[in-house]
Amino acid sequence: MILFNYNYTRIILSSFPGFGHWRRRWWCPARSGRHSSVEQIDICEIDGMVVDVSKKFFPDVAIGYDDPRVNLHIGDGVAFMKNAPEGTYDAVIVDSSDPIGPAQELFEKPFFASVARALRPGGVVCTQAESIWLHMHIIEDIVTNCRQIFKGSVNYAWTTVPTYPSGVIGFMLCSTEGPAVDFKHPVNPIDANESACKSSRPLKFYNSEIHAAAFCLPSFAKKVIDSKTT
After folding, report:
1. Which of 181, 187, 190 is nearest to 213 (CA)?
2. Spatial separation of the C-alpha atoms in residues 125 and 74, rounded to whole Å
3. Rounded mean pLDDT of 158-176?
4. In this structure, are residues 130 and 106 in contact, taking their beta carbons and an 8 Å threshold?
5. Sheet holding 154-160, edge to edge
6. How many Cβ atoms from other residues are within 10 Å of residue 147's Cβ?
7. Hey, how many other C-beta atoms are within 10 angstroms of the C-beta on 91?
8. Closest Cα to residue 170, out of 119, 92, 225?
9. Which of 95, 141, 182, 226 is catalytic?
10. Nearest to 37 by CA among 1, 6, 68, 67
């Protein structure tokens, strides 16, 4: 979602699943022009064996690692972001597991502070933010932390994921202080880019209407999220 808001060049993806599946969503289209501005992608994956197994048994999915613009780092995403030079990245995408065990740190204020420091002014982050049906208590904490750390735009969005408990998953989309970012109205039109895309894997679900609807929250969730100001 965040990649339609600017012509980003340097991106970090902190990924726990390990499959390289992100490329199916936007890196293949990048080669046909959708995100052609992307020059460098750093992936931080916690388990190198997961990457190896994915390449061996899921080659059609784990295609992202083969791109020459990709730098794969095996290690802890929290430590990676903590050590990243200030103002390095245009965008950070965190595809984490639930906030249990080692992934807990990815939902806490020190990690968000590291992300904000590693982003340029007006840089953006998208992170997994749980289900409004099951985890409002967790979402409250995430929203509070993000609004304290990120001084640009802070938004909660959600979408359907049939295989996830409750059938939905949420995202926090935040920007650092600097050039304004309007996540709800992308500067790069989604449908126009898709129409011009010559990828063999066009989008099957995502379009401009889906993007707009992602920010429409049920009243109970909107009330809680809107109440979490700095």
Report:
1. 190
2. 21
3. 94
4. no
5. 70-74, 40-45, 10-15, 89-95, 119-128, 168-175, 154-160
6. 16
7. 23
8. 225
9. 95
10. 6
Element (H, E) at 97: none
DSSP H helices, the chain, are 22, 28-31, 48-57, 77-83, 109-118, 136-149, 190-196, 208-213, 219-227
Q: Answer for the pair 103, 120: CB distance below 8 angstroms, yes or no.
A: no
CB 45 within 8 A of CB 74: yes
Q: What does the DSSP 8-state code read for residue 85? A: P
**Start-to-end C-alpha separation, the chain:** 25
Superfamily of domain 2-227 in the CATH hierarchy: Vaccinia Virus protein VP39 (3.40.50.150)
**Using 50, 70 and 90 to split pLDDT, how confident is the model at 18?**
very low
CA distances from 179 to 174, 176, 193 (A): 13, 9, 23
Q: For 171-183, how does the pLDDT look when each residue is reduced to its tens digit (9 = 90+)?
A: 999 999 988 889 9
Strands 40-45 and 10-15: parallel
Residue 158: strand pairing partners: 170
State the pTM of this model. Answer: 0.85
Q: Are 193 and 3 in contact (CB under 8 A)?
A: no
- Residue pair 119/178 in contact (Cβ under 8 Å)? The answer is no
Residues 6+ apart with CB under 8 A from 171: 1, 126, 127, 128, 129, 156, 157, 158, 159, 214
Nearest to 39 by CA among 87, 88, 102: 88
Active site residue 95: yes
